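Page 37, continued from 36.
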């Protein structure tokens, strides 16, 4: 039910109110935990040795040995165990720092699963989905449409069901209804967001700036997928819209002198009395300030704290980070990779998203507001790091951007003379992997921050490859596909 995105309909029945939903969602069918001791002695189709530890439920026969025994399993034997390999591969994606053995397991199981795809056609679709969309890195609401088509095959394969099971059809039918209802709701949200965006009339002043409210709303659909969060999604999209438009002002429109005035106006939180500030910047700031006042009033009414100063701070940080980028470009200065990344994790705008998630989920009410979030800044920094690095990879070239941006890859290559683009990108992929390990560890650890907020931040990280991976035609083909299934697809049906 998690894979077809209807688990949220049953959470109140499945989990008690005080259950840590995040920790429950981290458990997979394989029951593979980070305490499991698995030692790969050799790879590349040779023998591997698996030492049993607690909570292994991948190969039942292993349970019958004592915890100190070793069972030698050949690669040929593993190749027959598609469920076990898929469990290994899924476990690989929930690893934390220090789980070095899971790196080997992920590589080895992925290799065998890719081989298996060419041998067992009946399982190839399920295996391909596991390799392309491991559960922990995927967004069930985004994948539900595709997964529903193969739901019966998957459920029978993974649970050894061979007989006719009417309940499978009933779940498929329920999921189809859920998808159709979600599409209708999402269409209404897009209409509401588009009407708001058009009413700002910012595109009349900024004709070259991006105007993509439907695309921006996909961030909100990813972060907050629950059916009852329409209001929160709309408010989050409004904030995200300003991140994009302000980015375009710094990247495409403003001269350095104008951008300095723009940033100084935000630091003083004014716009009327700033001499020399272009009209389009005044209009932008006026609308931004009004948006912050509006959501601050709602937060005070709903959660009992006024986040206005907190929101002003995160927006000021964003403007100042944008200005640093602009000064680097104008001066011709190439920052070190570390210097670039420190500023880049702010200028990517992920901090705005996380701050608004914190606010919209009511985290700041009786828990200390801004100070409470600042005590847990690591989770925001990790999500921002993943976002910045993905954005900076060579595959992330926005089709509508004509401005000038540095990238971590470029800074790294200049700092490390003789390194190739490929080696620099490989280094970035390693950094992303390390950030994911730390993010998993942070989310699994005890914290006053709710599981719902942690899950929302995780969802933002899961959305990043969808939003920043361009195909050979420089199109966001994956995003376009998900937009179709979430918003504009025809009614979903289940074949009898």
């Amino acid at each position: 039910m998690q894979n077809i995105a209807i688990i949220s309909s049953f959470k109140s029945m499945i989990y008690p109110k005080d259950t840590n939903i995040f920790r429950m969602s981290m458990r997979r069918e394989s029951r593979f935990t980070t305490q499991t001791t698995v030692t790969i002695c050799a790879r590349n189709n040779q023998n591997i040795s698996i030492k049993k530890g607690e909570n292994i439920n991948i190969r039942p026969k292993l349970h019958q040995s004592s915890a100190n025994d070793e069972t030698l399993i050949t690669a040929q034997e593993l190749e027959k165990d598609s469920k076990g390999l898929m469990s290994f591969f899924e476990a690989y994606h929930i690893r934390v720092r220090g789980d070095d053995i899971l790196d080997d397991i992920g590589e080895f199981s992925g290799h065998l699963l890719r081989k298996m795809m060419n041998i067992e056609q009946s399982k190839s679709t399920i295996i391909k989905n596991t390799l392309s969309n491991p559960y922990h890195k995927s967004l069930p609401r985004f994948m539900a449409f595709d997964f529903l088509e193969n739901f019966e095959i998957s459920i029978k394969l993974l649970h050894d069901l061979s007989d006719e099971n009417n309940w499978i059809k009933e779940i498929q039918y329920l999921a189809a209804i859920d998808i159709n209802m979600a599409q209708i709701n999402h269409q209404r949200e897009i209409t509401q967001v588009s009407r708001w965006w058009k009413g700002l009339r910012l595109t009349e002043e900024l004709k070259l700036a991006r105007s993509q409210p439907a695309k921006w709303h996909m961030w909100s659909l990813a972060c907050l997928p629950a059916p009852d969060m329409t209001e929160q999604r709309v408010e989050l999209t409004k904030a995200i819209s300003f991140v994009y438009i302000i980015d375009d002002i710094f990247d495409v429109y403003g001269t350095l002198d104008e951008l300095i005035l723009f940033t100084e106006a935000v630091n003083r939180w004014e716009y009327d009395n700033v001499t020399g500030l272009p009209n389009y910047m005044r209009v932008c700031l006026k609308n931004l300030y009004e948006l912050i006042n509006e959501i601050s009033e709602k937060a005070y009414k709903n959660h009992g704290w006024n986040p206005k100063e907190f929101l002003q701070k995160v927006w000021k940080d964003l403007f100042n980070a944008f200005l640093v980028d602009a000064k680097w470009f104008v001066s011709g200065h190439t920052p070190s990779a570390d210097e670039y990344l420190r500023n880049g994790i702010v200028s990517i705008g992920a901090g705005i998203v996380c701050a608004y998630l914190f606010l919209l989920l009511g985290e700041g009410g009786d828990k200390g507001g801004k100070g409470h979030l600042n005590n847990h800044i690591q989770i925001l920094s990790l999500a921002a790091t993943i976002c910045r690095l993905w954005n900076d990879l060579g595959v992330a070239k926005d089709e509508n951007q004509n401005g000038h941006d540095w990238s971590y890859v470029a800074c790294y290559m200049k700092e490390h003379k003789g390194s190739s683009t490929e080696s620099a990108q490989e280094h970035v992929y390693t950094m992303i992997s390390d950030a994911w390990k730390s993010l998993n560890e942070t989310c699994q650890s005890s914290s006053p921050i709710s599981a719902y907020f942690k899950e929302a931040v995780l969802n933002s990280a899961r959305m990043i490859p969808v939003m920043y991976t361009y195909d050979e035609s420089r199109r966001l083909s994956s995003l376009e596909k998900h937009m179709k299934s979430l918003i504009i697809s025809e009614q979903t049906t289940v074949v009898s």
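Residues 216 and 241 are 7 Å apart (CA to CA). Flag for discussion at group meeting. Residues 166-200 form the longest helix (35 residues).
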